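Open question from group meeting: does this chain pack into something compact, or does most of it stay loose? Before anyone orders reagents, we agreed to write out a predicted structure and look at it together. Recording both the input and the output here so the notebook holds the full record.
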Amino acid sequence: MARSQRGEVNKGGQVVFVPKLMASVCGLGGAGKTRFACGAEGPILFLATDPNSAETVSRMQDEQPDKEIRYHQINLPGIAFGGRDEVEAEATEAWNEFTSVLSPIVKGKVEAPGTIVLDTATEFWTLLLLADHGKSVQILPELRTKSNARWQSLLSGLKQTGAHVILLHRLGPRYESRTVRTSKGPSEERVIVPNEWDRQGFSKTEFSINAEVFLFHDRAREGEIEDQYGMRVVRCTGRPALIGREAWGRTAKGEAKVSFDRLFRMVFPDASISE
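Structure tokens returned:
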């Protein structure tokens, strides 16, 4: 059985689509991104840049003893303690370690896990910029071409593994340009849009995923802490009618509405994860 992109397989001359979720899951700190990812189909390959993720993953493993979670920590370079050349060398070493974990899976040399998680894809993208340029800001667009191509190739490779892929992203404030009047005439300035957020990281991620959700933790909502977590669909290529839909808290049976299983069933309503 030959494997191709997103779980499509050629069998008897026909193409059979096996639904796999490639999702961007975004949120502020404490929104429940790591917990969401640990609820995905196992076994899970969990690649992390934040050492604090280990505590959450360990706790989730205790709650799901039958699910295998293979945790791999990638240490980011200490940009506060070295010059540009040193940072670039450390970043290159870390990036090579990161890709060496994924390479056997992408090339089909080992069996793919049920789910691959990047925690966070925002920081792995920053790591690539550091490896290519020794810095992550003030890089001319024409110099980013190499980095853009390498990251796009990474996402394409992940799509071909036949695993679910969860790209955890940080959220940052949304800015917009506004014209303000000054004593010297009209002037353009960037201002923060209240209560609006944008994904941080690779700007063209939406072309590789089939769904993107924002996760929230609203402490002002009534009820127990489980009722304070919410999920909003902001992109969905297969079912655009889902865009804007929100889910908060728990169902009448006490199941969390903010979960990998629920998102999968929203995107692929005619399929089941077990299939």
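Observations to bring back to the group:
Residues 1-7 have pLDDT under 50 and may be disordered.
Residues 17-267 form a domain with the Rossmann fold fold (CATH 3.40.50).
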